[in-house]
Amino acid sequence: MFQTNLMRFIFTSIFLIYQLISFAQPGGENCLTATSINSIPFIGIGNTTSANDDYFENCPDVGNQGGAPDHVYTYSTGNSIEYIDVSLCENLTNYDSQLIVYEDNCNSNPIGCQEDGCQSPNYNAPYNSNITGLTLQANKTYYFVIDGYDNLSSGNYQINIDSSIAFDVPDSSIIPLVYINTYGQEIQNEPKISANMGIINNGNFNFSTDLYNEYDGEIGIEIRGSSSSSFPKKGYGLETRDGNGNNNNVPLFNMPSENDWVLHAPYSDKSLMRNFLSYYLGNKMYYYSPRTQFCELIINDQYKGVYLFTEKIKRDNGRVDISRLDFDDLAGDSLTGGYIIKIDKYTGVNNDSWTSPYTSNSINPQNIEILYHYPEPDDIAFAQKNYIQDYVTAFEDALNGPNFSDSSTGYRNFADINSFVDYFLLTEATKNVDGYRISTFLYKDKDSKGGKLHIGPPWDYNLGWGNANYCEGGLTEGWAYEFNNVCYSDGYQVPFWWEKMITDPEFLNRLNCRWDELRNGPFHTDSINNLIDSMAVVLNAPAERNFIRWEILSNYIWPNNYVGNNYLNEINYFKTWINDRLNWIDNNLPGSAVDCSFLATEENSANLNVTVFPNPFKDNFHIEINGVNKPKEITIAIFDINGKLLYEKISSNQYIFSSENSNYLRSLSKGLYLITISSQKSLETIRLVKN
Fold first, then answer.
1. DSSP of 152-163, one letter per residue?
2. Which CATH architecture describes the domain 601-690?
3. Which of 61, 69, 275, 418, CA to CA, is 20 to 30 A from 688?
């Protein structure tokens, strides 16, 4: 019986393959002889072994060695936009493949390029490729190139092209709905195009039929990001504008009024939370970090997925709060600030920098480029460039000098040491492979306002928290600041600063004191886990839609260190990695806490012992702070699951709180809430449920 069934299975499989080969044409040799696709869905089957190597693209996500033979298909759209998925993720594909998609001709930059997008040991070839959610414009011709990784990459393939099923707009969402209408224009990398944005934010459920109530007006929008811009799910930079096209400052999602915003697109970060958590912790460390709001994005009636609406880093009262620097501020105290600079890649068209006189410490030393951020290159005077360059160089000279740790002549005379301590600890907690060397901001205010060099705000942590499978980014062991020892061939390396600071006894003392303080406050494992669990509940339905739109769960997306089969797997990996990483730092942080008198010891977070009861509650709940040496002042804040502030109370020398004293809290509807209890140096976050 078994043999009969086996023979029937084999015969059926051979028959199906024969049918596919009979009706699915192989691709053409090149774009001039490309096999035409008459309609979608489409299946193409072929073998590239005897083909020529006509096309080569080095995809941004995975490098291509070149030399692989290729086949080409072509398809022309009608009078409407089409959204498709293209895949080589079939068992018939038996080699390391690559997909390239060109628009109009094969000499242009590809609109899609992907390698290894569907890695799996279950395929005949473990490194197959796919592109999901590709937009095809109306009345255009497209070329689909089936290529390979190197000159050994050829063989059988099956290409499936189908309409994307993931563009339906949600009827409702627990997080805000953001709608953008570009009036038929394609969003470009630069410059910004004019568009309209409407936001529905009811504080709980948001329905697609609701009126825009958070914002309804004009914007300018463009694609943003460096390596992330290559992902099919694009991030966007936008500015709110008035009816005349001028910048218009508006408060969005309880954030201070401004006009510059970012729509961050978590794609390879399948937790969707890495930037959210990093900025949240940054703010709890009492330094400015970008504020955020999760939302679902719809552009031109097409669903784009879960996004993080975020403040852009810039000088302003509600952001990096330093002095305004005008073009004619050329002498005296006015020349000394404020400035924002960054260590980063060159992206965009408006960049300028200077080269540090100190190369990286590495067997392959690299120059360190420091870019002007504020004022922008077009707005900064020559004297201002010279001033901030000279100041940073003086800081580096002092740090590199023999008396670098001297309190009056060393580097601490130029730098705010506490900001460097906090940046170090956040970067090491996340083990961000981009930390210290990319997206690293610094700022300096006027001398009359302190005038020292601060590092921050934190920015771009989507490759942190165990999400990078290169340069040991996925390991919970090891130091991020030692990146140059691990990846000495990388063109962007860590400045020598951190290797030197870590030998300063004062820096080490502050490092250990601050780490102990943070671990008993916002970096406490329970606090982080509670926050992640709470946000996972909020994102449950939006995440499901996001991963229907972007079919990447169970697929490798550069540079994933872990590939989970579902969203819960990704969240569990996220939490487990964080726990292991923080424990490793506990046991391996160099130096010791010798003298922590610079901290407000009477407010030591270890003594902030909070009890909330009953929880879940039906009518009323109570909060008690039970620790010894209680802080003099505490703030109690209650948020809904969307992150909207519902209630806030600041109390002095009061450590018992009851909802009975608030008419508003007595009328809370059933659901999940977050309570934060904070002092100047402490923070606890507790989930609260009303039945």
1. T--SEEEEEEEE
2. Sandwich (2.60)
3. 275
The CA-atom distances, in angstroms, between 450 and each of 336, 405, 446 are: 10, 20, 7
Cis amide leading into 338 (omega within 30): yes
**pLDDT for 5 beyond 70:** no
Give the tens place of pLDDT for each residue, 509-568.
999 999 999 999 999 999 999 999 999 999 999 999 999 889 899 999 999 999 999 999
Instruction: Determine the pLDDT at residue 602.
Output: 36
Q: Are 48 and 26 in contact (CB under 8 A)?
A: no
Bond prior to 375 in cis (omega within 30° of 0): yes
Give me the long-range contacts of 444-448 (CB less than 8 A, separation at least 24): 444/322, 444/336, 444/337, 444/338, 444/339, 444/388, 444/391, 445/322, 445/323, 445/337, 445/338, 446/322, 446/323, 446/333, 446/334, 446/336, 446/337, 446/338, 447/333, 447/336, 447/337, 448/333, 448/336
- Cα distance between residue 673 and residue 691, in whole Å: 11
CB 141 within 8 A of CB 174: no
Tell me the per-residue pLDDT of 331-353, one tens digit each, with 9 for 90 and over.
999 999 999 999 998 765 567 99
- Span 302-342, pLDDT tens digits: 899 999 999 999 999 889 999 999 999 999 999 999 999 99
Provide the pLDDT confidence category of residue 670 given band limits of 50, 70 and 90: confident
Distance CA 213, CA 453 (A): 41
CATH for 19-163 is 2.60.120.380
Cα–Cα dist 405/414, whole Å: 12
pLDDT recorded at residue 45: 95
| Residue 100 host element (H or E) | strand 97-103
- Residue predicted with more confidence, 483 or 625: 483
The span from the CA of 636 to the CA of 677, in Å, is 5
CB-neighbour burial class of residue 148 (10 A; exposed 0-12, middle 13-18, buried 19+): buried
**Based on the number of CB atoms within 10 Å of its own CB, is 653 exposed (0-12), middle (13-18) or buried (19 or more)?**
exposed
Q: What is the pLDDT of residue 11?
A: 44
- Tell me which residue of 671, 657, 687 sits closest to 618, measured CA to CA: 671
Bond before 457 cis per omega within 30 degrees? yes
Token reading at 316: 């302003």
218 CB-near residues (< 8 Å, 6+ apart): 194, 195, 196, 197, 240, 241, 242, 243, 245, 248
C-alpha distances (whole Å) from 127 to each of 63, 90, 96, 101 are 13, 11, 5, 18
pLDDT of residue 165: 65
Residues 540-577 as b or e (16 or more Cβ within 10 Å = b): eebbebbbbbbbbbbbbbbbbbbbbeebeebbbbbbeb
> If you write DSSP's letter for every residue of 560-587 in order, what string do you get?
-S---SSHHHHHHHHHHHHHHHHHHHHH
| pLDDT value for 17 | 44
> For residue 13, what pLDDT is reported?
45
Residue in the structure block whose two tokens are 């702070």:
625
Residue ranges of the domains in the chain? 19-163, 332-520, 601-690
Which residue type, as a one-letter code, is found at position 277?
Answer: L
Given the structure tokens 């050994």, which residue do they identify?
Answer: 152
Report how far residue 576's alpha carbon sits from residue 604's, in angstroms, rounded to the nearest whole number: 27
Q: Do domains 19-163 and 601-690 have the same CATH topology?
A: no
Residue 624 banded pLDDT, cuts 50, 70, 90: confident
Residue with tokens 């998609």: 101
Measured distance CA(582)–CA(612) in Å, rounded: 26
Phi, psi of 160 (to 5 degrees): -110, 125
